[in-house]
Structure prediction request, 119 residues.
Amino acid sequence: MKSLDELKKIKERALERRKMSQESSRARVVVAMGTCGIAAGARDTMSAILEELEEKNIDDVTVTQTGCIGLCEYEPIVQVTVGDQDMVTYGHVDVSRVPELIEKHIVAGEPIEAWAIES
Prediction:
């Protein structure tokens, strides 16, 4: 990198790629992976989500991670947004809950109110 202009071009290309990948997804899943989340099993939850989506041949969902959300008592925490619906934040999403979460919220578009965290 030789100049500020070159850095700006790199940033613009990266933002464009990110925008394109998000536009092609009908849903977004974010797993909280702060230290408290990891200690509560968020890595296993993330792996289970990726495996479940692959098993069901669902390839139009973006799965990402974030840091601490600030609700440590609810870890592992998963946030789900389907289409233009409001984001739903779920607490205590361990591996055993992943299949139901994928089936009900991602596939059927029906949030699981009993697991939702009021924030």
Notes: The mean pLDDT is 88.
